[in-house]
Structures are given as structure tokens and as C-alpha cells.
Amino acid sequence: MRALLLRDLRLAFRAGGGFGLSLAFFLMVAVIVPLGVGPAPATLALIAAGVLWVGALLASLLSLDRLFALDFEDGSLDLLATSPLPLSGVVAMKALAHWATTGLPLVLAAPVLGILLNLPSAGYGWLVVSQALGTPALSIIGAFGASLTVGLKRGGLLLGLLVLPLYIPTLIFGAEVVKAGAMGGDVLVPLAALAGITAGAWAGLPMAAAAALRANLR
Amino acid sequence: MSIWDYANPKRFMQASSWALPYAAVAAGLCLLVGLVWGYFFTPDADKFGSTVKIIYLHVPAAMMAISAWMMMLVASLIWLIRRHHVSALSAKAAAPVGLTFTLIGLVTGAIWGQPMWGTWWAWDPRLTSFLILTLFYFGYIALWQAIEDPDTAADLTSVLCIVGSVFAFLSRYAVLFWNQGLHQGASLSMDKQENVSDVYWFPLLVCIAGFVLLFLTLVLLRTRSEIRARRMAALLARERLA
């Protein structure tokens, strides 16, 4: 399983692997939102938490359709499915690689983008914490969505339609953590809920995704 | 004779062709009686005027929107566990009906909201949850459309329905928290208002019964169509092989 993880990481970092794209997209979101809503610092301070989280969602969504599709097309997914590795383990490793190449850079970049969006200073720490806790959930939920659409030619659009509603609880609680942290409200409830979603998703979704992959590989 | 006998498509077609006229007539009657009674034979409410009568459409539609998703969940589980095609096809058939009920709920809610509370839309927990439910329905229907092989499509949409149910449930509480913090009541509580008096309650019951029967009729009808479509696809495939 470690070999699978390392292989996916190496593939992602190579040219054409899409590593920098999610990060660039995240930056793009942080730039175009102020251009759209106007530069008034008060407005931006109010929406910064939400915009950063929505950006994380969209950036995560971007790199999802290459998660299984490339391996599906060249037959590696069949090999992985018939190997001694449990398919849910394969899904988990791929989602982990996705997080390492998409979620983790977002967590590190988020404070920098928070400056662009005039995030209140108390919010920065909670921004990093919430994104560190929440982006793994985004990766595994996305992996589940990708497993449903793996055989499709135009899977990308359908993937967005399937995955974004599933992202909603993570988004709500993640943004709440940052807002509450910035304004001094109760952080523990949304933080616990966010952690619960991540833990529950990683516990249950690899199996669901494996079932979907097996249906698609038939 | 157990309910599993209806997993046999032929038995299902026989039973449903018998039941369908009764269900359709009963649905029509209940809806007619309920709506006419509700709209024309109840007095205008003191505070709310006649706009409150939209609840005769709004409340049953909203109830059926959730019930339809639950029926799809049960049907999906039955497909995954017992592989009964009729079950998978009934879930596929119920989805657009459920979606329509959800949309009716949202639109009638907006129509009620404008004169009543001065706004077409509010990000109230209940409304937001219904909007999210609409998105789940769209995703489910889109996935059925996108996959060619019907059995693969049945498998994938069943898994989506199950995972979607968990997340829809989660979203309900997330949205409650997002708008008002947990454990607080919704500001647009409709329960208190419609239980105002029996004058309004009985026609509402009849309308709810009408909507349930309407759902039953439509799903039976659509499931029969799906079964026929599968049979035709099988015939065409056989033709091509021969």
C-alpha cells in the first residue's frame, strides 16, 4: 500500500500531474472574488472565511476526475482490483495521495490568501486548523464521487454535481470554525462536527467507493 | 404469498395493472375533495388571509419529497442486498416524482412567502435543507442517465442514494447549526400555524392522503414503463445477436 501511495505521489508531482493547478486555482479564487464583490475591507472580512473554504472545495474538485480515470483507462485499476490489496485500501491510498498533493498545499497556502481577503487576525490559526481537519474529508468524499463516474467520458461535470452537495456539511462546519474563531464565538462545536465528518467519511467511504469501482470494472 | 413475490416482474406487472386504476381514482378523488374543500369551503384566516391555503399544496408536497427519498433508499438497499431488478427500477422511477414534489414545495413556499413574510426566499434551515435535497435528486437522476449498462447504473445509483442519505441527514443538522446554532427552533415554524384549528386540518389530511396516493400511482406507472423499457432493450439485444 505504501508503494501505491508513493507511486501516486510521484505521478502527481511529475509534469502534467496537476500538482500546482489546484493551488493556482485557489489563488485565482482569492483574486477574483474581491474583484467581483469590491475591495471594501469590511465586506471582505465578513466573507473571507467562506470564500477560502469554497475555494478549497472547488480546488479539490478540480483534480478529482484524474484520480481513478487514468488508471481505469490503461487497465491499472483492473490490476489493482484483482491484486491482494483490499480495494478500499487502494481507494484510501489514492485519496491520501490526492490530499497530499491538493489538500495539504491548500492548508499551507490558506493563511497567505487570507491576507488577500482581509481575514480578521484571530481567524488565521483556526483557518489552518479547520482546513487541516477538513480537506482530508474533501479528498475521500471526492474519491467516492470519482469512483461513481470513473467510466464516463464527460464524467467531470457530473462529478461536480454529485460531489458538491456531499461537500456541504464539511463546508458549513469548516467555515463556521473560521468565522467563530475570528469573531470569538464557540469554536468547539463546529470543530468537533468537522472532525467527526472527516473521521466518519474516512471510515465508511472507502468501502462505498470500492463497491462503486467494482461495479464500474465489471 | 409474500411481498417478495412482486420481485418477479411478471407478477409485479399483473398486480400493478390491477392496482393502478384504483390508486389513480383514489388519488384523484382525494386531491379533488381536499383541494376544493380547502380552497373554497374554509374561511379566510384572521391573520393570514387566504394565502395560507397554499399549505394544501405546500405541506403534502414537502412531506412527499422526503418520503420519496426514503422510499428510494429502501429500494436501493433491496437492490444491493437481494438484487431484485423491480426494486432498482422503482427507485429510478420514483426519483423524478420526488424531485417534482420537492420543486413544488419550494415554489409554493416562495409563493406563500412573498405576501406572508415579504420575501420569495430566505436561507432558513428548512428551506435550505430542501434546496440541498433538490441537488441530491438532480445528482441521482443524472447518474442514472449517464451510465449505459442498467445493472451497473443500478449499483452505482444505489450506493449514491445510501451515501447521499447519510449526507442529507448530516446536512440537515449542519444547516440548522449554520443558521441558528443547534437546538434552536426554526423561525418559520409551520406546525403551529397549521394546527390552528380543525377547520384547516381535515382538508389538509385529505390532501396529504391524495399526494401519497398520487405518488403511489405515478411510481407504479413509471416502474411499469421502466420494466417495459428493459424488456424492449432485451428484445432488441436478442434481435441483434440472432
Overview in brief:
The complex is a heterodimer of chains A (218) and B (242). Chain A has 218 residues and is an all-alpha fold.
Total of helices of chain A: 9
What string, H for helix and E for strand, traces the elements of chain A in order? HHHHHHHHH
Apparent shape of chain B:
globular
From the alpha carbons, calculate the radius of gyration of chain A and give it in angstroms. Answer: 18 Å
Distance between the termini of chain A: 23 Å
Rg from alpha-carbon coordinates of chain B: 20 Å
Proportion in β-strands of chain A: under 5%
Number of strands of chain B: 0
Tell me the total number of β-strands of chain A.
0
Please name the two chains that share the biggest interface, counting residues whose Cβ lies under 8 Å from a Cβ on the partner chain. Answer: A-B, 30 and 27 residues
Question: Count of helical segments of chain B?
Answer: 7
Q: Specify the helix fraction band of chain B.
A: over 70%
Terminal residue distance of chain B = 38 Å
Describe the fold and architecture:
The complex is a heterodimer of chains A (218) and B (242). Chain A is elongated, with a radius of gyration of 18 Å. The mean pLDDT of chain A is 90. Chain A is an all-alpha fold. The longest helix of chain A has 30 residues, at 87-116. Chain A has helices at 2-13, 19-37, 41-62, 66-74, 76-82, 87-116, 123-148, 155-183, 188-217. By secondary structure, chain B is mostly helical. Helices cover 80% and strands 0% of the residues of chain B. Chain B is built from seven helices and no strands. In chain B, helix 2 runs antiparallel to helix 3 (85-117), helix 3 (85-117) packs parallel to helix 5 (150-180) and helix 4 packs antiparallel against helix 5. The longest helix of chain B has 44 residues, at 198-241. The model of chain B is unreliable at 184-189 (pLDDT under 50). The interface between A and B is medium-sized, with 30 and 27 residues.
